[in-house]
Specification:
mainly alpha; 206 residues; globular; 7 helices
């Protein structure tokens, strides 16, 4: 257990303070940079910063859930999903730099809160742990769909990244469902949406 804690602590530091690397090719690798107005670039940057912050939260959530999952198969599934989320971190971080911005200053705060939620979800038992994962990914998928409708039409690079992220998130939700995820009560789902809204507003601006 101590070894696991040390490993996860190191992973947390790397998530917050190091640049992530992607094993898969970046989805926008063959897409040309579009001409964006200052307002369009600023809006695209805000949206991509929100997405990066969401991936930081996902890393913390998965880490907390994996630490407390009882079923080895469920734990391995969580770790595989977390691995793909690292790639999302790499994609969004590079796009933020290309748009001339920086990562959210609030990432450490949201990481800590998400880690606590992940640990708590895992302690409730694997079916609730996976239920929380499934609902999270459904909400993230809807969130990314909304970004696709908000991003400048000509910003094909950002849109390619968000599209691939959405497809991956929905696969993670299906994975959790297949492993026996429980359906969360409506008040919990609404609380998750409220938390996501607060994170979106803060990270969009800074």
């Amino acid at each position: 257990m101590l070894d696991n804690l040390i490993t996860e602590f190191d992973r947390g530091l790397r998530t917050l303070f190091s640049s992530a690397r992607s094993v898969r090719p970046h989805p926008d690798r063959h897409v040309a940079e579009a001409e964006l107005s200052a307002a369009e670039k600023r809006h695209a940057l805000g949206l991509m910063r929100v997405n990066h912050c969401g991936e930081v939260c996902a890393q913390a959530l998965y880490q907390g859930q994996a630490l407390t999952a009882r079923d080895p198969a469920a734990r391995e599934a969580l770790r595989h999903a977390a691995f793909e989320e690292v790639e999302h971190l790499a994609w969004t971080e590079r796009r933020i730099r290309e748009l001339g911005g920086h990562r959210s200053l609030f990432n450490p705060l949201w990481y800590t809160g998400s880690l606590a939620i992940g640990v708590s979800a895992g302690l409730l038992g694997d079916k609730w742990n996976l239920g929380f994962l499934e609902e999270t990914e459904h909400q993230v998928g809807a969130h990314l769909d909304s970004h696709l409708s908000e991003l400048p039409v000509q910003d094909a690079k950002s849109r390619a990244i968000v599209t691939q992220m959405r497809d991956d998130e929905l696969k993670h939700a299906e994975m959790a469902h297949d492993f026996g995820a429980a359906d969360l009560p409506a008040p919990i789902k609404n609380l998750m949406k409220l938390s996501a809204k607060v994170m979106t507003v803060t990270s969009y601006r800074a």
